[in-house]
Fold:
Amino acid sequence: MVATEGPLVLVKSLAKAQAQNFKPAKSLFVTKHLSDAFFAAGASVLESDELADQWARTFSDLLVAELDKSWRREGVDPPLELSAGAPNVFIGVHHPSFGGALNENVFEILSVIDSCDDHQLNIMGACALAAAEADRIHIVDGANDAGVDVIGLWAKGETMGLCTCIQSKAYADKLAAQHVEQAMDAYLTGTMKPMWNTYRSVLGVDLLPGLARVFVIVSKGGFGETGFDAGRRMGAACIGPRRLAVMISSKFTASELQLRLDRLSGLPRDPKRNLVVYLN
Structure:
């Protein structure tokens, strides 16, 4: 691999893979990491060490950029940061000097999200609404759902009348602009359909002083840059797996989340059922 594709290709792939890793690390020693990779790619021990020293700075710069792209782009601090006291060393969530906000629970929840199918991802969205203390939470996904999979409503307090409408996408790949546009079009068209009268009744909207709807796309595979651009342009909040995990972790541990996932997965479909009692 080193001979045919060049060290830069290998270094780029290593940085991208490390940034997208859902398993937390205590520390990453750059030269050791690179040396092992070059040796596995066919270089000799001596050549591997020399290449590691030569490409360490490039790898570090690429990793920081990939961490920004994968984590900060979703609004989440990355799980690795450069050590202030040691060159060519990244420290992670298990390191005592790690300054980020992530913890082991977030990664365990990420693993749950990563294995979700369509219905299970809807439940993840419902759990995020529960973490945000919504008063009514309904999974409405199905035929003629008016472009919405999950609805959350705040019926009291300062957020009274706020209604969050979630469209879940369990694709493994990142969503591009066309996916966001299609989801937004389905939602906007759906708000004009009779089904929304049913939703209004179920949510008790007529008892509220008003209603403010927010459209959210939850994507298991995350979003590409064009997807984020489309969300900003069309007024859709784009929530990828990392941000979703952080939101859920504010209320649930991974084991608590799994209990709720199992509980709700066994319930028959009923869009009129308020799931708050099952989630709290």
Q: What stands out?
A: The mean pLDDT is 93.
